[in-house]
Amino acid sequence: MGIHDQKEGKQDRDDIQESFRSFVDRTLALQGGAPINKCSLKCGNEHDDEPDDVHVDRWISNALELGVSELHLCLSSVTRHLFPSNIFSSTTLVKLTLGTKLSIHSFPSDTSLPALKVLFLDSIWCDIEEFSVWFERENFSNVLLAGCPALEDLTIDQKSFPGLPNVVSSKTIKRLSIVYIRANDADWFRTVALDTPKLLTLFYSTYARHRYRHCNLDSLVKATLDLHFSENEIFDEAFEPNVTDLMIAVRNVKMLHLTFSATEMNMSLMKSAFPGVTKLTCCVSYSVKEVKSS
Fold first, then answer.
1. Cα-flanking dihedrals φ and ψ of residue 188, to 5°?
2. Dist. CA 44–CA 218, nearest whole Å
């Protein structure tokens, strides 16, 4: 389902959108109580008006009432701060995507998603004054992740949007992907904790932080570290980015992939982080696409 921009034509845009709303309402009504396996809802974009929260919330609630197991929301709305409360208390959701460009201040304190296995947070928007609160441990790990006792796959893809959790704590997560490449709003002085004892696969692409503490990655098999270092920031020595503890935490992995930037900046850390390695070769590969002449 989706609401997209419409070029001016014979029919007024408001009439087109109202017709679409009626169509969605009728479609959901025709389910007649039959369960829904998958529901994807996309509303709004940079050229569109803000999505109608009343209608959108009703569609989400209807899908949840019909026992949807896979829900993907792509709602471009910087004015939205809350979702229908039942989205965080569903007993049937197995896969959930929340995005994009959403401004969410907090999760319900009674968040409970007992069946959820896959969670994708895509470009969650937060004001600069709010983003650190939204991703605080008390709000993110202690409320959201704690309410997902079966969660196995977590993706936090912030791209260039402010906000990144400083603590990811879960006893069940097996796959974790974190992407954040916004240097201007990076909280350089925060420490990062990854308390994920059952984690098997890690993809970590962001700017290196001041310190990595309590990195519980004992089960890790494969890690990809795409660590960025700002050339424009000047730090006191005590607060310089330090990834030593992170490198030590991943030293027992079977497969370790480092980007060129991460390798270049961390060669001096390898000896202490990987005491069993006597020789380390850095390989930089290039992809060449053959172009045939006409």
1. -60, -30
2. 42
Count CA atoms closer than 13 A to 37's CA, side-chain side.
0
Residue position matching structure tokens 């977590």? 154
At position 51, the amino acid (one-letter code) is: P
Task: Please tell me the pTM assigned to this model.
Answer: 0.81
Question: What DSSP character marks residue 143?
Answer: I
Query: What are the mean pLDDT values of the chain's consecutive 10-residue runs (294 residues total)?
Result: 50 76 85 88 63 81 94 78 83 92 76 97 65 63 93 89 82 95 67 93 89 91 86 64 86 84 58 56 47 43
**What tokens does 47 get?**
């050229």
What's the pLDDT score for residue 272? 56
Per-domain boundaries in the chain? 38-273
CA proximity to 266, closest of 232, 224, 227, 236: 227
Report whether the peptide linkage leading into residue 27 is cis, meaning its omega lies within 30 degrees of zero.
no
- In angstroms, rounded to a whole number, what is the distance separating the alpha carbons of residues 63 and 35? 8
pLDDT at 172: 98
Spatial separation of the C-alpha atoms in residues 84 and 147, rounded to whole Å: 16
Q: Which residues contact 19 (CB under 8 A, 6 or more apart)?
A: none
pLDDT of residue 133: 54
The phi and psi torsions of 191 (rounded to 5 degrees) equal: -90, 155
Cβ neighbours of residue 106 closer than 8 Å, sequence gap 6 or more: 133, 134, 139, 143
Strand partners, 120: 97, 155
Amino acid at site 289 = K
Asked if 200 and 174 touch (Cβ cutoff 8 Å), the reply is: yes
Q: What is the third-level CATH fold of 38-273?
A: 3.80.10
Contacts of 235 (CB under 8 A, 6+ apart): 188, 241
